[in-house]
Amino acid sequence: MLKLILTVVMAFSCLSVNAKDLMKPVEPIEVASDFTLKTPEGVDLSLSDFKGKFVLVNFWANWCSPCIKELPDMQALYEQVDRDKLEIIGIHAGEYNDAAAAFIKKYKISFPIVSDPDTSLKGWKVLALPTTYLVNPKGELIYQAIGPRSWDVKQMKALISQSTGK
């Protein structure tokens, strides 16, 4: 019986640790650098286009296997969020190429994707891929995740819902 109780306590402890590890608060809160980058169709897209919304900004690359593994989960999250409150933008690090296009098509990624061909977004302090930031409606970086995450999980949805007030 004691083993069972300890197992249950440990399981709930792991869940709460995992929820905290999903995204870490950015401290101190910083203003997100605006950007204007092109979509694969050649359309300009800026962070400021989404002013007044929360924006999940994901830096990825088609040669980054952890990035490739997490994007379908991010797509699943995108399909379930209220886009009047939260938008997702994928920023492909480097030149957008045929391999990236094939991946986007294969997994039916429908959230906006832009390319940063000369990795000009150094102000975002991306040290590894994937890296994801949650930007609040005031344009401030409030959470970050370095490394892959499972975006289609209850804890992530709860964190984003709590942050967006949804």
UniProtKB/TrEMBL annotation:
Secretion signal, residue range per the UniProt entry: 1-19
Molecular function GO terms recorded: antioxidant activity; oxidoreductase activity
Domain of life: Bacteria
The keyword Cell membrane appears for this protein: no
Keyword annotations: Signal
Pfam families in alphabetical order: AhpC-TSA
Domain Thioredoxin residue range list: 26-165
Entry protein name: Peroxiredoxin
